[in-house]
Amino acid sequence: MKHDTVLITGASSGLGRSLALTLARPGRMLHLGGRNETRLLETARACISRGAGVRIRLCDVTDQSGMEEWIQTLGPLDLVLACAGITGGTRKPTKPDSAPYEPDEQIRRFFATNLDGVLNTVLPALNVMQHQPRGADGMRGRICAISSVAGLVSYPGTPSYGAAKAAVDRFMVATGGNMRQAGILLSSVVCGFLNTPMTARNRFPMPGLTDVENASRRILRGLRRNERRIVFPLWLAAGSRFMDLLPIRLAEAYYIRQPTGSAGSMPEPDLS
Ligand SMILES: NC(=O)c1ccc[n+]([C@@H]2O[C@H](COP(=O)([O-])OP(=O)(O)OC[C@H]3O[C@@H](n4cnc5c(N)ncnc54)[C@H](OP(=O)(O)O)[C@@H]3O)[C@@H](O)[C@H]2O)c1
């Protein structure tokens, strides 16, 4: 797989940072995006110390024109990894007769970051890659977005997170079927819990929790093999697919008993 020039969003933390470090080596140029300058610079320094060339970009993935301006002015791109994302769940009812809820601001932010933010990364990258020559393996480039096992189920604890991740997965896999002809791989990562800062505040058991470095290696192996959907742990994804086939009331009766199924169990996201 040719990946001399790589662009990563969400490179200041967690999976994006781990992918950047795993890829960092002499002869490779990494374009790293994130909002937090201090943490992004930390990733950049660690990648440079491994011999990679690095350019950082302070950017918010919800800024469509800013993302286009960044991605479309870099020249050829071999690999783009859309990792930026945020999570959170439903809150407890505020009055005795009301229901668990997600604040409107949270719902809109999750869709803006986890869905529009992915499109703001993937669409300009597709524009760039369609105009670059094919490599020795017949590929023009590879684009990968991080979805989630949460996107496989209608989980009452994380409705808007799951919905945005489901949309990302469907878009990447379905559009990828068309883009194959153009020599561009579109890939979706359907993963379970990873041990990153995103989950560090969780105070509940996380079945199948995967070490982020193992996750990075699994993702890169899948991309080398041109996998359009990279899934791990398989048992968790298979169980989730099965649950989604059940009548919703039956599935909900199970979900609601899970640690993350009830309102107020997920840490509140930083929406500042
Ligand atoms: N951790 C898990 O268990 C898990 C499971 C399944 C899927 N995922 C997905 O994997 C991806 C990476 O998550 P993670 O676990 O690595 O989380 P993380 O450690 O919290 O990192 C999230 C990254 O996203 C960036 N980000 C968030 N909002 C952004 C915005 N508006 N513009 C630009 N960058 C933004 C953050 O950068 P700044 O702070 O610099 O803005 C940070 O680098 C996410 O898409 C997440 O949904 C995670």
Automatic annotation (TrEMBL):
<dbReference type="InterPro" id="IPR020904">
    <property type="entry name" value="Sc_DH/Rdtase_CS"/>
</dbReference>
<dbReference type="InterPro" id="IPR002347">
    <property type="entry name" value="SDR_fam"/>
</dbReference>
<dbReference type="GO" id="GO:0016491">
    <property type="term" value="F:oxidoreductase activity"/>
</dbReference>
<protein>
    <submittedName>
        <fullName>Oxidoreductase/SDR, dehydrogenase</fullName>
    </submittedName>
</protein>
<dbReference type="Pfam" id="PF00106">
    <property type="entry name" value="adh_short"/>
</dbReference>
<keyword id="KW-0560">Oxidoreductase</keyword>
<dbReference type="GO" id="GO:0016020">
    <property type="term" value="C:membrane"/>
</dbReference>
<dbReference type="InterPro" id="IPR036291">
    <property type="entry name" value="NAD(P)-bd_dom_sf"/>
</dbReference>
<comment type="similarity">
    <text>Belongs to the short-chain dehydrogenases/reductases (SDR) family.</text>
</comment>
